[in-house]
Every structure is written in structure tokens, then in C-alpha cells.
Amino acid sequence: MLRKLTIGVMLFALLLMGAFTVLAQDENILLYPITTDPSHLNMFTNDEIANSTVLNQIYEGLLDLDPGTGELVPQLAESYDVAINDEGQQVFTFHLRQGVLFHNIAGVELEDRELTADDVLWNFMVALNADPDISEPTLASNMRFVVGAEEYTTAMQEMLDAGDEVPLIMDDMDVPGLQVIDDYTFEITLRTPDRLFLVNGMPNITSPEAYEKLGEDFNNTPVGTGPFQFVEWLRQDRVVLEANPDYYIEGLPMVDGIRFINYGDENTALLDYREGNLDFLFSFPSGQRTAIMNEFPDDFHENAGTHIRYWGFNMVDGQLAEEPLVRQAFAYALDRETAWNVFSEGSRFPATLGFLPPSAPASTPSMTYQYDLDKAAELLTEAGYPNGEGLPTINIYLLESISDEAQVVVWQEALESLGISINFVIEDGSTYWDNIRTEKADIFQNGWNAGIPEPAEVFDYLILNGEGSMRWDDPDVDALLTQARLEIDPVAREALYQQVHDIVMEEMIVIPSAYSKIAWLQKSYIEGFEPGGMGIHHANLAIVTKSQ
Amino acid sequence: MIAYIIRRLIQVIPTVFIIYTIVFMLAYAMPGDPIKVVLGEEVNRLSQEQLDAMRANLGIDRPFLEQYLDFLGDMLRFDLGRSFIQREDVIDIIGYRLPRTLQLMLGGMTVALIIGIPAGVVSAIKQYTWLDHALMIFALVGLSMPVFWQGLVAQLLLSSNTTGIALFPVAGYGDGNPYYMILPSLVLGTNLSAIIARVARSSMLEVAGQDYINTARAKGLKSRVVLIRHHLRNAIIPVLTVVGLQVAGLMTGALVTETIFNWPGLGRAIVPAILQRDTPVIMGILLLGAFVYLIVNLITDILYAVLDPRIRYA
After folding, report:
1. Are A94 and A188 in contact (CB under 8 A)?
2. Which domains does chain A have, with CATH numbers?
3. Which residues have CB under 8 Å from B85's CB, separation 6+?
């Protein structure tokens, strides 16, 4: 009898524990799924979206991009002035907000520590550090137009190359383009005007004391000025943030905290959403998109994104590098509508325009390639390969993580119907990026996230100076792109990008396949969640309410 | 016995060294570059000098022998290095996850033994009856079901009011709350219980005809005493062998179970590490797995002697 009673009590205790777990979900805390655990939470060395999802709620920069419009909006700087000095250099003067306090969290204890221009300078100097263990090299790269920045980073790089240990900041070398005017005024001088500097050239701001105090732990304990402050991170389980009680915008954030819950499996996340254990769902199990839309018609939301899926041609030593007509035939043979709307359940918009996100200026090139097999066959004949005869087997490289996309099969069938022999090679990211830049690959599958609807964010990285994996380098196009980067007048700038876009599409360097959609589920009691087109990780969670 | 244990422990050292060498060679031979895996096409934003600096910083630009000896020296000092991706010491990565994986393995093993041994015993006692057939069919089904599928079905049936009864949480670690451990343990243990049940049954049947069982019965001992003290105790040794060998299988099963149930264990660390070519993490976890496997085998051998007085180690 006693044994049975003991077992009964134990079972009851277990059930009670479960009940308490359910009760915990009623708090005013956002339950936010993430499918990839952050690799670390160091803002200086961050280069991953998974990390940014968390860091964007903790850190702020001088300016921010509005997730909805992509326009620059004030953040730690309440305003800024732009001028051209006597030497033709561009000078930005930032007026910092007063009364902004750094997070005062356990282990750091920064009571009433106010942000000043000295802190801003310190952050910019650390961002210029050439040691990749201290600062992600793209930060220095984006700041290359700041007067003295390149010299500073180069000097540090030379020390590294010589095997010397580099300091966090070199006290004996100044960067004249970064100046503290007074406690609340910070000035940046660029040696040449650069429109995009404000968009992607500036680091976020952390507390120098926190950085020093935390040491190695800065990798997993972020300290910023944003609407949420760090509480704990249990690897591959959850990251917990709480509302910053001293946030400078009164009334924000609207919720008491965020619990980023890490899921290894999308089906599990879906089940938890269904059971009410999540407020959002951002990643849908493969093949279940339509079923999910039908099951949660009121929870389903969708935005156009800025990511482009495309097929690139090897323009240096690929077998089609000197075959523009064949490249065009390949473009006409891609049935984007069937691939993306039919077989992929509308997960992306078929790319019926060009190589830029549709919301970007100059996004409609003079020449587009709508699905037309007859036209493709004509072009093949014109190129001297009627019914594909005489054309060698074309090697198409597929990136393992996206190789199962329906567009692959749809395109394969169309190309084979034209008599073209193709050979698919599937590789994972460890070898793919090297091999697609060799003669092994004639065509490769790829994608690019512009981040903002801005032509330079695509062309400057994939076309300018032959930097993209197509390795297509055209001096005339490079000159147009350089001119466009410096052009202040938006109309003239758009015209320049339009010229580039037209050339790229006429030459058929890449076959645009699809434009991204940002799709998600959110519970009916959630309001204010507007991720815009820049990606879910850019959503401002401070303005989200949970009226459960 | 103590001399035997010490000798076996000493044997672990060259075995781990050989495993280290093989694993290091495999990791080194893996094509790819962790920097490019992480950055993808974004690598275009960096100059060759910056890329070289990043490679030098990770130490992956050095020749094989240099890396091999360096890592070996570090390992002998119990320094498993630093993750290329997570910017954290591997020892800390393992230290955080190992107890969680062991916890899950222990839960799975408990379930497997609780289900497997009674099922095997009952099946043997009731040989060729409907109960025997039913239990063995059940075991066969359990053995045939992949862990990931079992996990999904278990979640649908036992964690969701929409598709079943929500008795347990869908997933998560729940700060060590044992309630969160039940469902993943059930899933992990069911598969193993099928193997244990089948081995236990055949072993029980083999022992059933032994003279000492007949002697025990002839002495007038109660059936329960014969079953537990003489029959089961002698039949358990092959089961123990299987359990020992299955520890590795349990670890592999735990990797899948951890993913489905969001369990923050070693499995969820090694999979991304392999995909991202994070060699220090791969090396650390594989070496640990090998070490655990060797130790469990040693413990199994010692238990033989505890259970069977005829077995003695010199």
C-alpha cells in the first residue's frame, strides 16, 4: 500500500511540475523561436544573422535603418549634419542624445553610466582593429573611406604579420577622420563622399568599461544601450533578455522581455506554436507551407524581402563564358512560375524582372527573360548548337543546403528537352565557394541578400571589379558603378544603375530566379511586429505588444 | 582485480592516442575552410590579406605536422583548444553539454532496462504463447522504427492536444526539470529496449535448461527466488554486454533525439561543428565519445565479475 502511495505521490509531483511550466508562459514575455543558436554574442566579431537577431535588440548605433522603409532614422544620434569641407571631403557631424545610459546588468554594474562621444570614438577605434579575433574585418572594410582609417588598419596588420601582439587601440596613431568635438558631438570625415557609409559603415556602440571588465566573457555577455538588456544565454536552449528599465524612449519596450528559444527541428517549433508555446513562427517545415497557411489563415503574414536567388555563369574559364546566346537560351528555359509558385508553394516571388530586388531603384532592366522554350531553341540554333548538338556537357554546381529546390528539377527538365546535356555537382559550403570560382563550374546556384533596396548593395559586391563568383570584370561597368557610388543626385544615380543593370542582363551574366518573401506566423494577440523587407532579424521588438 | 583495472586504464591511453591520430587525419583531410563556410558569398567583402589573416588567426594555414603536434600537446594538458566559430573554449562547450547528454542517455537506458528486461523475461517464461509472440513483435517494431520518427510520433501523441493528449512538454530542457526528460527518454529508450528484450529472452531460454536451475527447483526454492537469484542473474550477463556495446548507439541516438526535443547536448554541438568545419569542437567531442566508450566497456567487464563469481580477472 505504502509503495503504491509513494508512486502516486511521485507521479502527481511530476504532473505539477509540468503545470508550473505551462503557467510560466503567461508572462508578458515574447516567446520567439530561432532555428540557429547564436555562435557568440560579440558585436565586434559578429558576421551571422543568428547572432544579429539577438544583438539587434541589445545594441544600437548612431543611426538605424527603418525596417519598413529602409530609410535612415536617428538612434543614439538624435540628428546629424553633412558638409563638404575645403578639401572636398565629406564631414558628418553627429549630435548625440543626452541621458542615454548603458545597461546595468549583473557582473558589469554600470550604474547611471551615460554615453558620451568618447565612447563612440572608442567603439570606432576597436572596430578598426585588424585582428579578426577582436573585430570582424568587414567593419574596417566598410570604414575604409574615413580619413586615416586605412593607414591605421594597415599599420596594425603589419604588426600582426610580423607576429607582434596588437593592442586594442594604438595610442600612438591617430585616425584624423574620427574626432570628438564635445561630450555629445562626434565628427567623421570621409576622404571622398560615400553615400553608403551611413548605411553600413558604422559599428554599434558598447561600453568600454564593460568590454574591459568582461574580457573573454564579452563574447557571451553583450552590454549596449538598446531597449532590451541581456539576462542569460543557455547554449542551444535559449537566450533571455529583459526590458531595459532606463531606456531613453519612455514607454518602450512594450513587453517585459524576450525569450529566444532555439529549435533544432522546424516540426518541433511548429508543434510548439500550435500548442501556444510560441508567439511567432518564422521557419516552416519543408512542403508544409500551404498546409500551414490553411491551418493558420489569420496568423499568416508575408513581406517582400531583399534576397535574390540566382544562377551565375562562370565568365572567366567556364564553357559558356564566350557564348552569350547560349547563356540567354538558358535564361529563357527557366520556368520560374512553375518552380516557385507551383512546386515551392509560393515561397518566393518568381524573378520576372532583373538582378535587383523589385523595390530597389533601377530594378527593371531593358531586357528580361520570361519562360519561352521556343525562343531558347532559336537562340541555341543561332549560336550554332541546334537541338543542343555540339554543345559540351555543362557542369552546374548546386549548394548542398539549397540543392533540393524545385527550380533545379524544373530547369533540368527544360534544358534536357532542348537537347542540352548537363551534369549537376552538389557540394556543401566548405568547398563550394572555392570550386565555383574555378573552371570546374560553368554555372552555379547562388543567392545574395541586399539587406536594403539599394543597387550598390548588389552590384558593388557581385559585379564591381569582378568580385562576385561570376568573376565578370568590365572596366566600363566598373566606371559606371564607381560614378554611381559617389553620385548624390538620386535621379542621376538611378540612371547610372539602370545602365549597369541593362548591360548585366543583356550580357546575361546571371539568371535571376526568385526574390525572397519573408513569411511568418504570429499569434492574434501580438501587435506592432513589422519586420519590413530587410529580414526578420532586423525587426524592432521594442514596439511589439502582447495583449494576451 | 585492482591490478586488472589499472592495466585496462593504462591500455586506454594508447587507444585514445590512436583514435586521436585517426580523427585528426580525417578532420584535416576534410575539404573546406571554416571561414568560407560561415561567410559564403559574403567572403567577397574581404580582401585576400584579410582572409589570410583570419586563417592565420585560426592556425589553419600551418602544415599538418605542426597542427597535429600542437593539438596533441594541448590535449595532453587537457586543453582542447578554442572553437573557430563559437569563440569559446572547447572544454567549456563540452562541459556545458556533456552532463545534459549523459542525463538523456541515463534516462534512455533506464527506460530501456525497465521495458526490455521484464519483456524478455516474461517472453521467455511464456515461450510460444500469444504473449511471447506479441512482445517479440512489439520488440521488432520498436527496433525497426527510426528514432526521429518515434520522436515526431511521440510529440504528436503525447505533447499536443490537437493531435493527441498533451501530457508532456513538446520540447526543451526546462532548466533540468525532470518532466521535460520523460518523453525524450522514452523515445531514446524504446529502441534500445527492443534489443534488450530479444537478448534477454534468448539468454533466459538458454539458462532455463541448466542443471543449477533444476537443482534449485529440486531443493524446493520458490519460483520467484529461482527466477531472480539463479535464472535471471545468470541470464543477465549477455544483456550486460549488449548494454555496454549500446552505449555508443545510445550516444548516436541521443544526437537525433536532442535535435527533435531541443535538448542542449553534445549532439546539437557536433552537427553544426561538422558542417562548419569547426575542427577543435569535432575533435573534442569525438575524443570524448571514444573515451566514454572505452570506460563503459571497462565497467561492463568489471560487472561481469561482480555478477558471475566464476569470472575472475588476474
Report:
1. yes
2. 28-37+226-299+523-548 (3.40.190.10), 59-215 (3.90.76.10), 304-518 (3.10.105.10)
3. A39, B34, B38, B272, B273, B276, B278, B281
Please check whether residue B307 is in contact with residue B28, taking contact to mean a CB–CB distance below 8 angstroms.
Answer: no
The rounded radius of gyration (Å) of the Cα atoms in chain A is 26
The three cell numbers locating residue B66: 605542426
d(CA A452, CA A73): 14
Contact of B191 with B145, CB cutoff 8 Å: yes
Helix/strand/coil percent split, chain B, to 5: 80, 0, 20
Say which DSSP state A509 is in: -
Query: What tens digit of pLDDT does each residue of A515-541 get?
Result: 999 999 999 999 999 888 788 888 999
For B55, name the nearest residue in chain A, comparing CA atoms only. A132
B47 touching A (Cβ < 8 Å): yes
Shortest distance, CA B7 to any CA of chain A (angstroms): 38
- The structure's pTM equals 0.83
Within 10 angstroms of residue A342's Cβ, the number of other Cβ atoms is 12
* Strands (DSSP E) found in A418-460: 422-427, 443-449
Q: What is the DSSP letter of A381?
A: H
Cell triple for residue A547?
495583449
ipTM: 0.76
Q: Is there a contact between A219 and B53 if contact means CB atoms under 8 Å apart? A: no
Within an 8 Å CB–CB cutoff, is residue A368 touching chain B? no
B31 chain-A contacts, CB cut-off 8 A: 430-431
Distances (CA, A) of A119 to A80, A179, A208: 17, 12, 7
The radius of gyration of chain B's CA atoms, rounded to the nearest angstrom, is 24
A334-376 pLDDT, tens digit per residue, is 999 999 999 999 999 999 999 999 989 999 999 999 999 999 9
The Cα–Cα gap between B88 and A236 comes to 14
Helix (H, G, I), strand (E, B) or coil at A49: helix
Q: Which residues pair with A450 in a beta bridge?
A: none
